[in-house]
Specification:
Blueprint (H helix, E strand, L loop, with lengths): L9 H11 L18 E5 L2 E4 L4 E4 L2 H5 L8 H13 L10 H12 L6 E5 L2 H19 L6 E5 L8 H5 L4 H4 L9 E4 L15 H16 L4 E6 L15 H11 L3 E5 L23 E4 L11 E5 L1 H5 L23 H15 L2 H22 L3 E6 L4 E8 L4 E2 L2 H13 L2 E2 L1 E2 L10 E4 L7 H19 L1
Parallel strand pairs: 3-14, 5-6, 5-7, 7-8, 8-9
Antiparallel strand pairs: 1-2, 2-3, 4-10, 9-10, 11-12, 12-13, 12-16, 15-16
Helix pairs in contact: 3-11, 4-11, 8-9, 12-14, 13-14
The protein binds 4'-deoxy-4'-aminopyridoxal-5'-phosphate.
The site of 4'-deoxy-4'-aminopyridoxal-5'-phosphate has 16 residues, from helix 5.
Length: about 450
């Protein structure tokens, strides 16, 4: 791509950005002396910035979103056609694309039956919290209102979603948090809280039960978990964990909510992360990969059993779910999502994800042999983490600035990777990788080659 040939004056754009845009999750002080990075174009797994520099994007649009890659004209066509036919109507009425996508989605989610549309992951999760609170009021005499979330998990940026964030540094400046949210311990075996034990998975799940008993089972309505923790360190739950979690939820009549905002729609090589573990959730939320960022859409999916609890009856006309999301009625969302799913199916991207994910983990393990700074490699499909430690025995995390130096060096080499980002005190030491599901062997090898070079440069 030749940016110099573009008609718009890119200098003006950079200055307009510097003067008027407030970037997400960004310290702006450096922009007083360096230019903000502006991306101009994307194709497949590659993006180009305003200087014309090309990057191999190992993060699917920076935050594991663009699952089918950039520049998909068939999705753009589907969105355009939909916008011309009907761009919007409040979702208290239905739409053709909304009905078709819901049907298609449910066909991939045995046991689930209803899709509630909104437009961000945070919002999709808050819908669940609201449903649970409404069920507590209507069906449990005001009990069962508490929401359990797990240390190191993240569920969104709005205040109630933040109240369910197990990432202390994300929430510490935004209190007070709303009440009724209770943390359970993480399940990262590499940093076991229980010493070296054979049954870590089961033990980590039992820790949830201990919190339930402490709080009182009749106060707890929901357990909200990521299937594989994303920004909290790419944590693949240990063997035996999910079976026990499901058992505990059933034992205490607690609904299980799986936050698939990152893992959903192919990231781990199955349609949904939870399907790796044979669990049967009551709620599943998803956002990023649903339409790969071609339109804003998120979904809160639940069972017929839950849905039935919101049906009107003569005695209680206020029993329906008293919630609306204006842009949950944008029909471009489901139109893009339908085409996104078709691409994943027709191009065999789930199988590709499994194969390329294996290669990515294999390459990272090979790097581990050459670089003592890699303490642990974790992965599920095209979703991998490499934890950097100063000492493999003590597992002391390397300083965050060194992790950021690795990320910066990869970017200088033209490869975009990520890291746990100022969310966990002392533990922002995991490199994160989530390439698009279309990745080829050469892409995977290019990513890990850049990481290897960066590790040599930063750590010797
Ligand atoms: N859940 C998880 C697991 C996430 O990673 C995120 C975003 N990173 C969210 C929820 C919130 O999604 P959104 O930014 O679309 O509100």
């Amino acid at each position: 791509m030749n940016i110099a040939a573009q008609p718009n004056d890119i200098r003006d754009v950079i200055e307009a950005d510097r003067a008027n845009v407030w970037h997400h999750l960004t310290q702006h002080k450096p922009f007083e002396t360096v230019d903000p990075r502006i991306f101009v174009e994307g194709k497949g797994m590659r993006v180009w910035d305003a200087t014309g520099k090309e990057y191999l994007d190992a993060l699917s649009g920076g935050v594991w979103t663009v699952n089918v890659g950039f520049g998909r004209t068939s999705i753009a066509d589907a969105v355009r056609d939909q916008l011309v036919q009907l761009n919007y109507f409040a979702n208290s009425a239905g739409s053709i694309a909304g009905a078709k996508f819901a049907q298609k989605l449910i066909s991939k989610m045995p046991g689930m039956s209803r899709v509630y549309y909104s437009n961000s992951g945070s919002e999709a999760n808050e819908k669940v919290f609201k449903m649970v609170r409404q069920m507590a009021h209507r069906h449990h005499g005001g009990k069962k209102y508490k929401i359990l979330y797990r240390e190191r998990d993240y569920h969104g940026t709005t205040i109630a979603a933040l109240a369910a964030a197990g990432q202390q540094q994300r929430r510490e400046q935004y209190g007070p948090m709303p009440p009724g949210f209770v943390e359970v311990p993480h399940c990262l075996e590499y940093r076991s809280q229980y010493g070296e034990i054979d049954n870590y998975g089961e033990r980590a799940a039992e820790a949830i039960e201990e919190v339930i008993l402490r709080e009182g089972p009749d106060t707890i309505g929901l357990l909200c978990l990521e299937p594989v923790t994303a920004g909290g360190g790419v944590i693949v739950p240990p063997k035996g964990y999910w079976e026990k979690v499901q058992e505990i939820c059933r034992k205490y009549d607690i609904l299980l909510h799986i936050d698939e905002v990152v893992c959903g729609v192919g990231r781990t090589g199955l349609w949904f992360g939870y399907q790796n573990y044979g669990i049967e959730p009551d709620f599943v939320t998803m956002a990023k990969g649903v339409a790969s960022g071609y339109a804003a859409i998120s979904c809160t999916v639940t069972t017929e059993k839950v849905f039935e609890m919101f049906k009107d009856d003569a005695d209680d006309p206020m029993s329906y779910f008293r919630d609306i999301s204006t842009f949950g009625g944008c029909v471009a969302g489901p139109a893009a999502a339908l085409e996104n799913m078709r691409i994943i199916e027709d191009e065999g991207l789930l199988d590709n994800t499994l194969a390329m994910g294996k290669r990515l983990v294999g390459n990272l393990e090979a790097l581990m042999e050459r670089h003592a700074v890699i303490g642990d490699v974790r992965g599920a499909g095209l979703f991998c983490g490499a934890e950097l430690v100063a000492d493999r025995k003590t597992k002391e995390p390397v300083a965050e600035k060194l992790v950021q130096a690795v990320v910066a060096d990869c970017a200088a080499q033209g490869v975009i990777i990520g890291a746990t980002n100022r969310s966990l005190p002392g533990l922002n030491n995991t490199l994160c990788l989530a390439p698009a599901l279309i990745a080829k062997e050469t892409d995977i090898d290019g990513i890990t080659e850049a990481i290897g070079k960066a590790l040599t440069k930063v750590f010797g």
